[in-house]
Structure formats: C-alpha cells, structure tokens
Write a structure and sequence with these properties.
Rossmann fold, Wheat Germ Agglutinin (Isolectin 2), domain 1, 2 domains, 8 strands, 18% strand, elongated
Length: 165
C-alpha cells in the first residue's frame, strides 16, 4: 500500500524528514510546519500517485486548521488518515493539535504505556539534567526517554505541583 508520511518540522531529533520508531524502523516523511495546507498537499500528491492512506507522526504539533484539513482528506479525497501523537504536555495541558484531534477524529485508539508503579500511564513528566521534574517552561521541547517519563495521574501529581484554580 502507498502511504503518504508526514512528520513535524519542529521534531528533528532523528534528522529532518525522518520518522523513527523505538524499535528502530525508520522512513522518510514530508515535513510539515504550522503554515502548511495539508489538504492541498495531499490533493496534489494524490493526483500524481494513488495513496491508500496518510500517516501523521507527532500529530500534537498540528494546528487546529490542519486537523480540519486532514478531515477533508478523508471526507473529500476518500483517503484514510492515521495520526499519532501525545495528548498532553509535561504540565498536563492539551496540545492544540491533540485537542482538535480529540474533537474531530472518527476513532481514537490509545497506545498503552505503563507507569513505574505498574498502572496505566496517561501523563508525561519532563526531567532536567539531574532527573528532577520540571514544573515550568515552553510547551514544546523535543526529547525522548532521556527527557520525559510516562506516569499515571497519581504519580504525575506527586511530581508536578499543579494549580488548578
């Protein structure tokens, strides 16, 4: 099957335009930034070659408009779209792309991750160079297992002083 791959320009830790899995699989992908019209790009590419699906990696970095554009890829062009990304940032806040995907997606499938206590991990904690939790900073800071730890909500709250007021 022909798959059109996208990855976020902001995440270049494996090289520009590369998607790499934790088990070592990798593929080249079209880099997207917030200003790109993904519907128009897919429409143009699909006029040149038949695509069976579109896969978007790091989908949390999509804009709300781009999530809408991807829904148009499915609804108008008839090409299924699979989007993979984080739901929340290191402070428990939704990313813009994740929020839009939660609202607009036809189907949601959660990949399970486990906290150190054995419970389902639903949150991530960002760590500094001494493995201490970071409680403030930019929403976007690229990193992998060296910077982020998946935790259940209970342990997330124990590590992050969280003001919900």
């Amino acid at each position: 099957m022909n798959t059109l791959l996208f990855t976020a320009a902001v995440d270049d830790r494996y090289g520009v335009g590369k998607i790499k899995s934790r088990i070592g699989l990798e593929a080249k992908a079209k880099v997207y930034s917030r200003d790109d019209d993904l519907f128009e790009y897919v429409k143009k590419k699909s006029s040149e070659k038949e695509y069976h699906c579109v896969l978007v990696d790091e989908a949390q970095f999509l804009s709300k408009a781009q999530v809408f554009q991807l829904s148009e890829v499915t609804d108008i062009l008839g090409i299924p779209v699979l989007a993979y990304g984080l739901r929340t940032d290191f402070l428990g806040n939704l990313f813009e792309g994740s929020q839009a995907l939660l609202a607009w997606a036809d189907e949601l499938n959660e990949l399970k991750t486990i906290c150190h206590c054995g419970k389902k991990a639903t949150m991530v904690v960002r760590l500094d160079e001494n493995n201490n939790p970071i409680r403030e900073g930019s929403q976007i800071e690229i990193g992998g297992n060296d910077r982020y730890v998946s935790m259940c909500r209970k342990h997330f709250k124990e590590n992050i002083i969280y003001d919900v007021k």
